[in-house]
Amino acid sequence: MSASARVIIVGAGLAGLACAGHLVRRGVACTVVEASDEVGGRVRTDRVNGFQLDRGFQVLLTGYPEAANVLDYPTLHLQSFHPGALVHYGGRFHRISDPVRRPQDVLSGLMSPIGSLRDKLTTLRLRQDALNHRVCAQAGGGNRTTLEALASYGFSAAMRERFLRPFLGGVFLDQSLSTPCPIFEFVWAAFSRGAIALPQAGMGAIPAQLASSLPVGSLHLHTPVTQLDGKQVVLASGERLSADAVVLATDYATAATLRGEPIPAAPSHQSTTLYFDAPTPPVRGPWLLLNGDQQGPIGTACVLSEVAPSYAPAGRALISISLSDQTGSVQENLQGIVRAQFREWFGASVDGWRHLRTDHISRALPPIAYLADKNGAGSPRLKPELYQCGDYCETGTLDGALLSGRQAADAILADL
Questions:
Q1: pLDDT, tens digit, for every residue of 291-335?
Q2: Alpha-carbon distance 132 to 282, whole Å?
Q3: Which domains does the chain show, CATH number per domain?
Q4: Which of 211, 208, 210, 219 is nearest to 2 (CA)?
Q5: pLDDT, tens digit, for every residue of 93-105?
Q6: CA Rg value for the chain
Q7: Is the distance from CB of 401 to CB of 391 less than 8 angstroms?
Q8: Are 308 and 400 contacting, i.e. CB atoms less than 8 angstroms apart?
């Protein structure tokens, strides 16, 4: 490895790879060092017994503005979810669909107990307001929470508790819906603008695509960094790398440690996802399943192989189940508890499913308090020659990671 480069980027997650890509396209030499064995950070896909298992349930919103500019969607061969959800409530599933994309579902949706006609019309108004950046103004300001924003629109209790809370609670890993209104507005606009999708080769195909544009030899895996020393990066091996600029592109906690600062006290958002192999899918079609009963451990679920058949071997179904309780406390006999609830939904066939893996992601999303403090105001410049990027610098989303990478690159280009 060269002992010097114009820019050293610590971390090969989406933010670091996006930063490197922007710099390379402008002719700036970069070295990207990554502690793990693969690029992507939290966005990874493993191959297990012929299945594609993302590390925790993840999706791509094609309506994300930065992602649409940075990623080559056709090459990812995106497979889309149905624009809506199947909500389990009162012993059965009820279909709720986006009336703009699925007008043929409007009549059946009006007959469901998930929300009234007024709720459906209010959803259309929320859609338009999100696309025109008016949600927070309607809610009374950007300091409002997601729950307060929804309350300002007058949704019924049935719509809030049976659809909006389980759906958004799964998106933000926060059943209290305390995520700041500007982030909710941004994400809801992305849902309204595009599809919920999975790459054919799994979510790990996204960082792989970003990494493929970097020059050979610029990316170094299995290369942990132990400290920063001015414009030098000290590796675990003891080697020192010098640069004109250093970018911290790790998660918020690792970045704080490398800066010599305490890790933020606010708890991060954690996620727990269980994967099962089944001989047949319990539901047909690319549906997101929501627990509208608000009881039991299950928050959301889906048959990933119904969305993207490449996620499972031929003749098998891959089921993903995410918990509603994201406090990080993994219960004893969690698999048995989850099976028991799914048995209530789909019957005794659940007993024949094979458990593949349980993913517990301790830092799936940045802390709300930390994110709210940084959102939209965190400069990529930490001090001369030291920069930062990551989802925590923006909206805490995949799009925020990509955007912060570009912003760090722009700051470096301006300074160099």
A1: 999 899 999 999 999 999 999 999 999 999 999 875 545 567 899
A2: 39
A3: 4-44+204-265+368-415 (3.50.50.60), 45-79+198-202+269-365 (3.90.660), 82-194 (no CATH)
A4: 219
A5: 999 888 777 766 6
A6: 22
A7: yes
A8: no
The 8-class DSSP code of residue 371 comes to H
| CA pair distance 187, 181, nearest whole angstrom | 10
Q: Looking at this protein, which amino acid is placed at residue 317?
A: A
The string of pLDDT tens digits covering residues 166-200 is 999 999 999 999 999 999 999 999 999 999 999 99
| Most distant CA pair in the chain, distance | 67
Q: Which residue has the tokens 């103004």?
A: 137
CB 31 within 8 A of CB 9: yes
Beta bridge partners of 358: 274
Q: Could you write out the DSSP letters of every residue in 234-253?
A: EETTS-EEEEEEEEE-S-HH
How far apart are the C-alpha atoms of 13 and 8, rounded to whole Å?
A: 14
CA distance 7 to 23: 9
Q: Letter for the amino acid at 414?
A: A
* Contact predicate 366/396, CB 8 Å: yes
Structure tokens at 39: 């690029």
**Residue 80, H or E segment:** strand 79-80
pTM for this model (two decimals) = 0.95
The answer for residues whose C-beta is within 8 angstroms of residue 399's C-beta and 6 or more apart is 61, 64, 65, 66, 67, 190
**What's the token pair of residue 177?**
């819906």
Q: Rounded distance, CA 234 to CA 238, Å? A: 6
Looking at residue 93, its amino acid is F
